[in-house]
Amino acid sequence: MNKKALIRTISLELNSAMSQDRIALILDKAVEITKRTLAFGEPVRWSGFGSFVVKDIPPRRFYSTRLGECTTSKGTK
After folding, report:
1. Per-residue pLDDT tens for 28-66?
2. CA separation for the pair 51, 40 (Å, rounded)
3. Which of 58, 33, 57, 60 is closest to 44 using CA atoms?
4. Residue 3 confidence (pLDDT)
5. Backbone torsions φ then ψ of 25, nearest 5 degrees
6. 12 burial class (0-12, 13-18, 19+ CB within 10 angstroms)?
7. What's the distance, CA 51 to chain centroid?
């Protein structure tokens, strides 16, 4: 399901009590707030749906068959 389908489904579930533009605005704000909260390193928990957290992935060593030597990957966030 993509965003447009989600908006349409929410509108149908609400019996068109709220416009699709208004629903889209609310979803956009929810995503914006979620991104901002995660950027500050705080977890986001939606009861009954799931949790979002930013994980630090440390660099790791691996053997590169292309180079024929051990290499270290970059850590990511």
Report:
1. 999 999 999 999 999 999 999 999 999 888 888 888 888
2. 15
3. 33
4. 94
5. -65, -45
6. exposed
7. 10
Question: What's the pTM?
Answer: 0.67
Maximum Cα–Cα distance across the chain: 63
How many residues are listed for the chain in this entry? 77
Predicted pLDDT of residue 66? 83
What residue segments make up the domains of the chain, in order of their start?
Answer: 3-72
Domain 3-72: CATH architecture, name and number where available: Irregular (4.10)
Q: CA distances (Å), 59 to each of 43, 66, 70, 76, in order? A: 23, 19, 13, 8
CB-based burial, 13-26: b 16+ in 10 Å, e otherwise? eeeeeeeeeebbee
